[in-house]
Design goal:
InterPro entries: Cof, HAD-like_sf, HAD-SF_hydro_IIB, HAD_sf. This protein is of the alpha/beta class and 268 residues long. The protein is built from nine helices and 14 strands. A hairpin with a 4-residue loop joins strand 3 and strand 4. It is globular.
Length: 268
Amino acid sequence: MEKILEKAPKIKIIFFDIDDTLRVKDSAFMPESITEVFYKLREKGIMTGIATGRNLFGVVPEVRALKPDFYVAINGAYVENAQTGEVLYKNTFSKELIEEIITWLKNEQSGYSFVAADSLKISKWDKIASDAIGPVYSELEENPNYYKTNEIYQMLTISDHDDQLELPEILSDKIRLVRWHPNSSDIVPMEGSKAIGCQKVLQELGLKAENMMNFGDGLNDRELFDFAGLSVAMKISHPEILEKADYITDSVENDGILKALQALKIID
């Protein structure tokens, strides 16, 4: 604990995951203590960011109301200064790559969703899609050709056999799968991650990894936990994230974020 406390004074910016970190994904519960946390961090001159697999459309009003300084969205593929609206970084899929992915998923009898900066479309809306995406984005419009006229930053697999999907050789060096639900995986660029998006913010600010802290719980936080100077896992985190964490805190419902920041003496 002593070594962790030595890292705390160097922190200049803190990034927060949304689902099951800032708020409970299934119930949408967000404790009042989160508002207190963001207020106290601002008072101390510590900047804040949202680092999420969601796109901007999925950043719900109560999270926007926290007035973070930066959005690292779509697993790092889209980075925006939340105060000015300036886009600091974006990494889109080529149409050729998307068509290769669609061909593969069709052969695997899997549906798919397109993730743009502020909208999502799906190949088919059914119960499988509803179970996975409904709690996050609600019902999506069907549009299997959406990629032809819009920039796409990420795709999602949608199937009841998602754990059996394997990338073909033609795609294995271009993309990777990050499972976030029994029925769905994020399809991200091989080099894409929240860590890359947060690194773009640090470069903009002239900061180093040691100046950054993050809170998370899922496998899409894996690279971020390797990169950040100080990483905190929620109690219910994936075992791999718990293993990588510098500090493990309580659940969302039990004010885990506030407790961690107080224990690490970042806020009172």
